[in-house]
Each structure stands twice: as C-alpha cells, then as structure tokens.
C-alpha cells in the first residue's frame, strides 16, 4: 500500500507541474498574441501611404524589429513549454497506469 501512496503523491506532483507549465504556456501565448497584434499595427503603419514621412517609417521599422526580437524567443519558449506539457502528461498517464496496475495486484 505504501507504493500506491508514493505513486499517488508523485502523480499529484506531476499534475501540479503540468498545470504550472500549462499556465506558463497560456501566458506566453497571450503575450505572443499581443506582440502579433502590435506587429500587425506596425506593419499597417509602415504600409500606409499617408504616413508622415521617412522618420516615421524608420520609427515603425525600429519598433517592428524590436517586436520581432521579443517574439522569436517567445515562440521558442511556447514550443518548449508545449513539449514539457506533453512530456508531463505522458508521465501522468504512465503513473495512472502504474497506479492502476499496483491497485489491481
């Protein structure tokens, strides 16, 4: 019975980790979405023929480049978080399977 308790505790820990990773992933997605919107606005401004001249275009280009620099690491982070979540979910599934096997024995 001690093994089942240990597996249950380990499963609960992993589930907490999965929730934490999921929350981090969602936060990164929201930030990513915000940056995409900002980038879209910057692109629209850059393509607007009524813009106020070269200095404004240079400013937009600078802002767009800065946003892209922020966005790229976030894309990587989101991808890594997603991989972690999938890995943790697999581990939780394996713990459930091990727990079920331990209970039936």
UniProtKB/TrEMBL annotation:
Keyword Transferase: no
Residue runs in coiled coils: 4-45
Cellular-component GO terms for this entry: outer kinetochore; spindle pole
Molecular function GO labels: kinetochore binding
Keyword list, A-Z: Coiled coil
GO biological process terms, semicolon-separated: establishment of mitotic spindle orientation; mitotic metaphase chromosome alignment; protein localization to kinetochore
Superkingdom of source: Eukaryota
Protein name: Protein Spindly
Organism expressing this protein natively: Microtus ochrogaster
Origin organism lineage: Eukaryota, Metazoa, Chordata, Craniata, Vertebrata
